[in-house]
Write a structure and sequence with these properties.
By secondary structure, this protein is an alpha+beta fold. The chain has 3 helices and 7 strands, in the order ααββββββαβ.
């Protein structure tokens, strides 16, 4: 609950940035204002003055995102996470959940884990946090139905230690 309250305060404080992040996740360009979004190959880039650009990749068939802070013009290779480790990523997992009653069958539960790295720049950390929360909201909104053999998916935001 504390994380959600903290993020809600960030959304209120950074309205213009949040509008640009919304465009970024909707894969729409934005060429006006302080924060701009442009398309670069398979990526959409969030341009923020005095910071490296944030390159966001989304797999077309899945809800898998990868985000990269890049100062240079070279685009990362989205499929090569070893050479180009992302700053923000979504992993999709699945687990079996034991039933509450012995007469019921075990059910599956999908887990979407949104992870962002610690950044030395507080501004980059704020952007990571906001993008993670926006991705979380988007994933939850896109879950319209859950099969009978599944439990409602979990959508978590984590930060590695």
């Amino acid at each position: 609950m504390i994380h959600q309250d903290k993020t809600q305060n960030l959304v209120t404080e950074y309205t213009s940035l949040c509008l640009a992040i919304d465009k970024l996740l909707d894969k729409q360009t934005k060429s006006w204002g302080c924060f701009q979004v442009k398309k670069e190959a398979d990526f959409y880039s969030l341009m923020i003055p005095s910071l490296p650009s944030f390159k966001l990749y989304q797999n077309q068939k899945t809800i898998i995102y990868r985000g990269y802070w890049r100062r240079d013009q070279e685009l990362p290779i989205a499929s090569d996470t070893k050479s180009f480790p992302p700053s923000l990523w979504v992993k999709k997992k699945q687990k079996k959940v034991a039933p509450l009653k012995k007469t019921e069958a075990a059910k599956k539960q999908r887990i979407y884990e949104i992870t962002y790295n610690y950044e030395s720049s507080s501004e980059m950390m704020v952007v990571n946090q906001l993008i993670a929360e926006f991705i979380r909201s988007k994933i939850i909104k896109n879950i319209v139905a859950v099969p009978d053999n599944e439990i409602f998916p979990l959508v978590l935001i984590t930060r590695p230690q």
